[in-house]
Every structure is written in C-alpha cells, then in structure tokens.
Specification:
Distance between the termini: 36 Å
Structural class: mainly alpha
Radius of gyration: 19 Å
Number of helices: 6
Largest sheet: none
Strand content: under 5%
Order of helices and strands: HHHHHH
Low-confidence stretches: 1-10
Shape: elongated
Helix content: over 70%
Length: 179
C-alpha cells in the first residue's frame, strides 16, 4: 500500500470515528429528552457530557495537523465523554432495573450490521429510536458508544505512535549532532 493510500485510509478511518461519535451524541440527545421524565439529574449530566464532547470534536477539527499532542488530548477527551455517556446509560438501566443487552445477542448484532451499511447515518436508527421504549434506546446508545470508543482507540494509538516516532527521531538527531 502506498503512502498516499495509507494516509487516505487513516483519514477515512478517522472520519468514521467522527461519524460514530456524532451519531452517539445524536442518539444521546434523543435519550436525554426521554430521561427528563425519569430524572432531571440524568438529563443534566447527559446534556453536559454532550456539550463537552461536541466542543472537543469541533476543537479537534480546528487544530492544525502539526499539533499532534493537542489532537491526542482532544481525542482522549472525546473518549472520556463516550465512556461517561456509556456509564450514564448503564446506570439508568440499572437504576430502573432494565436489562442490558448481552454482547453476543441478536440486538447487538443488528446495531453492528447497521453501521456497516453504505448509507449509515442517524436515519438508520431513527425509526428504532422512535418506535422502541427507553431501555432499548439506552442499549442502542451503549452499542453505538462501544463502536465509537473502538474507533477512537485506534486513532489514539496512531497519534501515540506518531509522537513516539518523532521523539525517537529527535533523540537520534541529537546524538548524531553530538558526534
């Protein structure tokens, strides 16, 4: 694979991560609206998480490509908001004594198969969200968050490798300059 193809693949992969994060935020927003009838605290927490995550996503896109460390920090913030959003959804299910979907269930497989479609977007899930109870929407959100976290993990790994490589090159250059 050529270097331009590899760069294009990385950019495409990150755009998928962004899409999944944005989709999780959109579903989280819908779930937050439904939470309001259950708990204002849950709604407040979810709204704050969504705001912080969206702010980090915007700042990531605005950061110059050279500022790898800044981008890494923003990706870590995105990942943190995803984890917190997942925790809020799991806490809600536990609090209301709803069951959480098993990892190998048909429902989880359905969510993962939806994300592999060419026209994957919020519309793919909107009918499911509108026609199902809050516990199913919370489980859907957990699945979407897991996908987004996997994508973010990959991006974080790539940036960490780039930082390590640049640090190694700097050390080598320093040693060569001393010789």
């Amino acid at each position: 694979m050529s270097l331009p193809q590899l760069k294009e693949l990385k950019e495409e992969h990150f755009s998928e991560a962004c899409e999944k994060v944005q989709l999780a935020y959109k579903v989280g927003e819908q779930l937050g609206e439904r939470f309001s009838s259950y708990s204002n605290l849950l709604l407040t927490d979810m709204t704050e998480l969504l705001h912080l995550g969206r702010e980090a996503l915007i700042n990531y896109h605005l950061a110059p490509d050279e500022s790898i460390k800044s981008k890494l920090k923003l990706l870590n913030i995105l990942q943190l908001t995803m984890n917190q959003l997942k925790d809020e959804s799991c806490d809600f299910l536990e609090l209301k004594q709803y069951s959480k979907w098993k990892c190998n269930s048909a429902r989880v497989s359905f969510v993962y198969s939806m994300s592999n479609q060419d026209d994957y977007s919020y519309k793919s899930y909107s009918n499911f969200i509108e026609s199902n109870k809050i516990d199913k929407v919370a489980n859907l959100l957990i699945c979407l968050i897991d996908q987004a976290i996997d994508e973010l993990d990959y991006e974080i790994h790539i940036l960490e490798r780039r930082i390590k490589r640049s640090m190694s090159l700097t050390k080598i250059k320093d040693k060569l300059s001393r010789v």
